[in-house]
């Protein structure tokens, strides 16, 4: 017999009546979907027919309502409307490790929706992990240290890797970026060549304002230098120096993280990872506080529409 699925991802068979449009079905069942997300943390709706990206955007919009614009992004996305995007244009052969969307920002989405227009030929799963369980299973001393000091994210926006600051902040004027960063508690330093370096310290643990439950809520492991592929890390370090990586994370007091600690965090995530391979028309709805998510390497075409909704102060 197959092993029972962990409670952190519920599969929901849509089974719409013949001729029922996916947008109509989602609108009629939105309350049921949201109730399942509240109970399980994530739900995969299966059996819908999505004709193209435009149809998927319509479905996602009905679930998230008013979308939340992304600021401080890491990789390019195609934009389809307020809070509506393609998945990040991240190299297909490189994983996106477990993280909570925009957990480094002052404002993050509570709700995320992923809609599969074209599944990859192999890999490419958007996996999830219960961040309450991750917090429970991390070493107490490690958690206490991060709770005392938070976690520090450094970024180096340059025209060669990832997004430049103009695209990340949606601004052309450095003064506008400085005003935004000052309001969000982000330290700013400009390079002589126009590059931008930032530092921001955020809490590593989040208490759900509704349930009171605590979750490991951050991107400490994903954005750390030790999670990068060795050849990528070596190339970037040789090009920009150890302090010029496009992103890196530290303890909140500025102390560096060693490889063993980063590997430990990723290992605990792996123990709680739930995977469901994409099928055409799948729609996954995720509570971004309770659940971390990742994207595995893949082959072939892969088209996923992403929605960000219900912003909260993180």
TrEMBL record:
Cofactor annotation: Fe(2+)
TauD/TfdA-like domain ranges (all copies): 21-304
Record SUPFAM superfamilies: Clavaminate synthase-like
GO molecular function, one term: dioxygenase activity
UniProt feature, compositional bias: Basic and acidic residues: 1-10
Region (Disordered): 1-21
Pfam families attached to this UniProt entry: TauD
Signal sequence range: none
UniProt keywords, alphabetically: Antibiotic biosynthesis, Dioxygenase, Iron, Oxidoreductase
Listed name of the protein: TauD/TfdA family dioxygenase
């Amino acid at each position: 017999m197959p092993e029972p699925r962990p409670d952190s991802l519920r599969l929901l068979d849509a089974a719409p009546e013949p001729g029922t449009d996916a947008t109509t079905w989602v609108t009629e069942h939105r309350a049921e979907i949201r109730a399942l997300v509240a109970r399980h943390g994530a739900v995969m709706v299966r059996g819908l027919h999505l004709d193209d990206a435009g149809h998927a955007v319509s479905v996602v919009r009905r679930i998230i309502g008013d979308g939340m614009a992304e600021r401080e992004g890491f990789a390019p996305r195609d934009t389809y409307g307020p809070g509506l995007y393609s998945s990040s244009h991240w190299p297909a052969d490189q994983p996106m490790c477990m993280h909570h969307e925009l957990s480094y920002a002052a404002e993050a989405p509570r709700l995320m929706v992923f809609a599969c227009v074209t599944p990859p030929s192999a890999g490419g799963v958007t996996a999830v992990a219960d961040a309450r369980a991750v917090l429970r299973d991390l070493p107490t001393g490690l958690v206490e240290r991060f709770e005392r000091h938070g976690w520090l994210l450094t970024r180096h926006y340059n025209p060669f890797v990832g997004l430049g600051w103009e695209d990340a902040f949606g601004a052309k004027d450095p003064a506008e970026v400085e005003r935004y960063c000052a309001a969000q508690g982000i330290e700013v330093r400009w390079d002589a060549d126009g590059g931008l370096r930032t530092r921001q310290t955020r809490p590593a643990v989040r208490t759900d304002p509704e349930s009171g439950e605590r979750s490991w809520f951050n991107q400490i492991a994903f954005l750390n230098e030790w999670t990068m592929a060795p050849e990528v890390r070596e190339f970037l370090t040789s090009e920009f120096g150890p302090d010029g990586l496009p992103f890196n994370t530290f303890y909140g007091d500025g102390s560096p993280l060693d490889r063993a600690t980063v590997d430990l965090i990723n290992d605990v995530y792996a123990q709680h990872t739930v995977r469901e391979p994409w099928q055409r028309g799948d729609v996954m709805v995720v509570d971004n506080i309770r659940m971390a998510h990742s994207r595995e390497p893949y082959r072939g075409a892969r088209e996923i529409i992403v929605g960000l909704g219900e912003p909260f102060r993180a």
